[in-house]
Amino acid sequence: MENRVHAMGSENTMEGVKFASETAANTNRRALRDIKNIIGNPHQHLAVSKRGLLEKPAAADPKNQRGFAGHRPVTRKFAATMATQPASAPPAPVGSDRQKRNADTAFHTDMECTKISDDSPLPMLFEMDDLMSSELKEIEMEDSEEVAPDIDSCDAGNSLAVVEYVDELYSFYRKTEDLSCVSPTYMSRQTDINEKMRGILIDWLIEVHYKLELLGETLFLTVNIIDRYLAQENVVRKKLQLVGVTAMLLACKYEEVSVPVVDDLILICDRAYTRADILEMERMIVDTLEFNMSVPTPYCFMRRFLKAAQSDKKMELLSFFIIELSLVSYEMLKFQPSMLAAAAIYTAQCTINGFKSWNKCCELHTRYSEEQLMDCSRMMVELHQGAAHGKLTGVHRKYSTFKYGCAAKSEPAGFLLDA
C-alpha cells in the first residue's frame, strides 16, 4: 500500500514537471521568469528600472508637448529610414498576454515617434547647415592659398638639410621671433650710455669677430644678447665694453666648436678688465636672460631666404654686407629679424640687377611682399650710401677685402629712394 502511494506521488510529480515544461514551451519563455514582475505589483525600493535610465517622464521633458512619456529623440537616419519604408501592420505578437500588450505599446510608440518627426523639423538642422557652410569656406580658403615652390628637393640626400621638417622648423622661428626682439626705444631708459655708444661697440665687435674668424651665427647672437641685456639692465659706459666681450664669449660657447679663452678677450680689451670681471659679467648676463640663448636671429632667416632666391656667391656676400650694416644701426631694431633678412636680400637683388627684383618664390617663402619690404629696404640703401664715411666703417672695411668679394664697393640702389 505504501509503495502504491509513493508510486502515485511520483507519477503526479512527473506530470507536474511535464506540464510546466509544456507551458513554458508554449509561452516561449523560461519558467519562473515573471516572479515578482507582474503588472500592478508594487515596485521594490531596491529594484533598478532599466526603462527609467533610458527614458524621461513626460513631466520632466519640457519639449514633450504631446504628452508622450519617455520617447528618445529621432535621429536623421531613423527618420529617413521610416519615411522610405511602406506602412505595415503591427507584427503579430507571440507569447503571453503581457507580451502582447508590450508589443502593441512598442508599435504605437514607434508610430507616434515617426509622426512627431514628420510634423516637426529635424533636430540640429540649422546647426548642421552652419557647420557644413563653415567647412566649405575653410576648404575654399585652403584652395585659394598659393603653395610655395619646393626648394629642398636638391638636398633630399643631405641629412644636415633636414628636408623632412625644415618647413616646420622655420614656421616655429616665425612664431617665436618676437621673443628675440627688444623695444626700439630701450636706450631712453639708460642713464649713462646712448645709441651712438652702442653703435661704436658693435662696429668694434664686428672687427673682433673678423680677426678671430668666428662663425656668422656668433656675431648675430652676440648683438642679440647685448640688446636684450641692455633693455633690462642699466649699464654705465665704462662697463659697456665688458658687456660686449662677455656677450661674444657666451655666443661662442653656444655656437662655436673652438671657444676663445678668457685671456684672449682680456688682451683684446687692452687689459681694461680682469678675468674675475668677465666671469662675473657672464653670470649677470645669463641670470638676466634666464639662460635663454635659443632665439631666432636674422642669420637663421638669411640662409633660408637666400636659398629661396637662388642666390650666387656675389648676392650672398652683398646681402650679408647690408644686414651687418643694419646690426650697427640702432634704428633698425624696429624691424623683426625675418623682415631684416628679407629686406637685405631684396636690396641686394636690386643693387645687382639695377631694377626692382622680387619674384613670387621669394615672396611666398619669406611671406613678405615688395611693398612690405620697401621702408626697411630704403633705410638699408641709406646705410649703404654712408658706409664708407663717418667713424663706423668697420663693416665697410671688412667687406672691401678680396675674401668678401669687395661687396662694399657695389653701387647702392639709389633708385629705391626715388620710388
Automatic annotation (TrEMBL):
> Which GO terms of the molecular function aspect are on file?
cyclin-dependent protein serine/threonine kinase regulator activity
InterPro entries per record = Cyclin, Cyclin-like_dom, Cyclin-like_sf, Cyclin_A/B-like, Cyclin_C-dom, Cyclin_N, Cyclins_cyclin-box
The answer to keyword Transport applying to this record is no
Identify the SMART domains for this entry: CYCLIN (SM00385), Cyclin_C (SM01332)
SUPFAM superfamilies the record matches? Cyclin-like
Q: What positions does the domain Cyclin C-terminal occupy?
A: 296-413
Tell me the keywords, alphabetical order.
Answer: Cell cycle, Cell division, Cyclin
Gene Ontology cellular component?
Answer: cyclin-dependent protein kinase holoenzyme complex; cytoplasm; nucleus
- The Cyclin-like domain covers 203-287, 300-382
Instruction: Kindly state a single biological-process term from the GO annotations of this entry.
Output: response to gamma radiation
Q: Which family does it belong to?
A: Belongs to the cyclin family. Cyclin AB subfamily.
Name it: Uncharacterized protein
Q: Lineage from the top down? A: Eukaryota, Viridiplantae, Streptophyta, Embryophyta, Tracheophyta
